[in-house]
Write a structure and sequence with these properties.
By secondary structure, the chain is mainly α. The chain has three helices and no strands.
Amino acid sequence: MSALDVRNIVALALMVASGFSALGLQIVWTQQNALWLGQESAALLAVIGAFFGGLALGAWGFSARIE
């Protein structure tokens, strides 16, 4: 097994761990916002809106660097 294969496996493991932690944080934020907003559907919309808003701001901010 070459060093490149090991780095790919480590990178994949880190991405999987990041995805699991993001899912856990989304559940926590949804539950906290449900207490604050009074209903879970509004909380879910707020969390998803914040997520997509962050993606849009990141794409806008780094668009010149990405191109």
